[in-house]
Design a protein that fits this description.
Strand content: under 5%
Shape: globular
Helix content: over 70%
Number of strands: 0
Largest sheet: none
Oligomer: single chain
Order of helices and strands: HHHHHHHHHH
Length: 254
């Protein structure tokens, strides 16, 4: 029953993300587009093409820093602000960590819809894997499996991470064309692996570091895929500035 409750909670957060994208994206100017598409994907596209990558990076870094700082006060300092506890389910840090992976996964799926070349299916695998990891993170599925089987987190999470790794390797040349997407994504993956490697250690500060790495991992995944999607703007070659791409796309938007 507890498992079902957590899964429903995770799906509710995904639904909140979708609704948020729809509400925000529809208020932005049309970004151009996905033939025959309406609703979520166009809204997400509008948001991705409207937000500056640097602003997104600063915003995500600020949110992660605040959550880690407040979480450290709870875990290490025993300050009674339980909604910010880092090592618990259905808390604000857990929800934010899950939302980061949902956002990154959605951007990956969007890249797959924008990419018309062969091999675009790998974006879909990448996006689906990230969203699956998000649900696992929010519902603590792999933690439950670890507790029942005594297997390490690396062994349990491995089957979920493997499709992500394969998709990344296939997409690496495309990500490298949208610098620094490949470096951001690889660093995010390294942060994620480091957080899992810390799992067997039992220490309060370890918990702070582990959860901080997870938040950093999700943030880097979002930034990497945001760079890719922004690089797919019409008329914008990889490496060109966002303003240049927007200017080039303006005539076609009319």
């Amino acid at each position: 029953m507890e498992l079902l409750k957590d899964i429903v909670g995770a799906l509710a957060i995904v639904a909140a993300f979708v609704i948020g994208v729809l509400l925000i994206g529809r208020r932005l100017a049309p970004a151009g587009s996905l033939t025959g598409d309406r609703g979520f994907w166009v809204s997400l596209l509008n948001i991705a093409w409207s937000i500056e990558t640097r602003a997104a990076a600063l915003g995500l870094a600020a949110c992660a820093a605040v959550l880690v700082a407040l979480g450290a006060l709870v875990v290490v300092g025993d300050v009674p602000i339980e909604p910010f506890r880092l090592n618990a389910e259905q808390t604000i840090p857990a929800a934010f960590s899950g939302l980061l992976l949902v956002g990154a996964g959605s951007l990956g799926l969007l890249a797959g819809r924008l990419d018309r070349d062969r091999g675009a299916w790998a974006w879909l695998v990448l996006g689906a894997a990230l969203i699956t990891l998000a649900i696992d993170e929010m519902a603590e599925l792999h933690e439950r499996l670890e507790a029942r089987t005594d297997l390490s987190s690396v062994v349990v999470v491995g089957p979920l991470a493997l499709p992500l790794l394969i998709a990344f390797l296939i997409l690496l040349p495309r990500m490298r064309a949208h610098a620094p997407a490949a470096v951001l994504f690889a660093t995010g993956a390294a942060f994620g692996l480091a957080s899992q490697a810390l799992d067997p250690i039992h220490n309060r500060w370890k918990t702070v570091l582990e959860e901080g790495l997870e938040l950093g991992s999700g943030s880097l995944f979002v930034l990497a895929l945001l760079v890719v999607v922004r690089g797919m703007q019409p008329g914008r070659a990889p490496g060109r500035s966002p303003r240049a791409g927007a200017a080039a796309a303006a005539p076609s938007a009319r």
